[in-house]
Design brief:
Number of strands of chain B: 11
Distance between the termini of chain B: 37 Å
Order of helices and strands of chain A: EEEEEEEEEEE
Strand content of chain B: over 45%
Number of strands of chain A: 11
Oligomer: heterodimer
Shape of chain B: globular
Helix content of chain B: under 10%
Number of helices of chain B: 0
Radius of gyration of chain B: 13 Å
Strand content of chain A: over 45%
Shape of chain A: globular
Structural class of chain A: mainly beta
Radius of gyration of chain A: 13 Å
Largest sheet of chain B: 7 strands, mixed
Order of helices and strands of chain B: EEEEEEEEEEE
Largest interface: A-B, 24 and 26 residues
Structural class of chain B: mainly beta
Largest sheet of chain A: 6 strands, mixed
């Protein structure tokens, strides 16, 4: 079945790069996403990548997709305190259903 | 920028009562979804809706749940007889301005449902 796994916590010093990793089991996904959830808020779409791409860069965000290893990562350059949130990896399929990981809580150290 | 809105932001109800959660999707979208997130757990797919009917539903979406698009703007999730385990954040999403497959889903801010 479809499953998406992420580590639950990541601590990064302000100004450093954060790398959040995700693995998935079903390679038939069409899109892979990163969503951000701030405390008490909804899900904000950060970025997405087509499943036939390897990399996507969007300002401070870099998404890398390794289809062979079924591994997706999100790199946030120059991490700021405002980046503190839970980051959800997710994949979608032809039936439009999205499967989410449990989320990685990013904590920024001063 | 267009966004998905949801009301209410927080709903408290007694066990066994019916609740209706409301969503206004982005106006030119064609596909609509409900997800839920029990506190501390992952976001789970409930149901997708297109062309006035359910396209896909998960095993969570049992006979206690129903969805409706009563007019051209609202999309509702009804829980007929709430249980304690229905307490969660419920997210609405919409996608598919072009009706294409796997278009990006945009989420609303969520309704926190608390069942006492």
């Amino acid at each position: 079945g479809e499953d998406v796994e992420q580590s639950l916590f990541l601590s990064v010093r302000e100004g450093d790069s954060s790398v959040i990793n995700c693995t998935y089991t079903d390679s038939s996904s069409t899109y892979l996403y990163w969503y951000k959830q701030e405390p008490g808020a909804g899900l904000q779409l950060l970025t997405y990548i087509f499943s036939n791409m390897d990399m996507k860069q969007d300002q401070r965000l870099t998404v890398l997709l390794n289809k062979k290893d079924k591994h997706l990562s999100l790199r946030i350059a120059d991490t700021q305190t405002g980046d503190s949130a839970i980051y959800f990896c997710a994949e979608s399929f032809r039936d439009d259903k999205i499967i989410f990981g449990k989320g990685t809580r990013l904590h920024i150290l001063p | 920028e267009p966004e998905v809105t949801q009301t209410p932001s927080h709903q408290v109800t007694q066990m066994g009562q019916e609740v209706i959660l409301r969503c206004v999707p982005i106006s030119n979208h064609l596909y609509f979804y409900w997800y839920r997130q029990i506190l501390g757990q992952k976001v789970e797919f409930l149901v997708s809706f297109y062309n006035n009917e359910i396209s896909e539903k998960s095993e969570i979406f049992d006979d206690q749940f129903s969805v409706e698009r009563p007019d051209g703007s609202n999309f509702t999730l009804k829980i007929r007889s709430t249980k304690l385990e229905d307490s969660a954040m419920y997210f609405c999403a919409s996608s598919g301005a072009t009706g294409g497959l796997a278009d990006t889903q945009y989420f609303g801010p969520g309704t926190r449902l608390t069942v006492l």
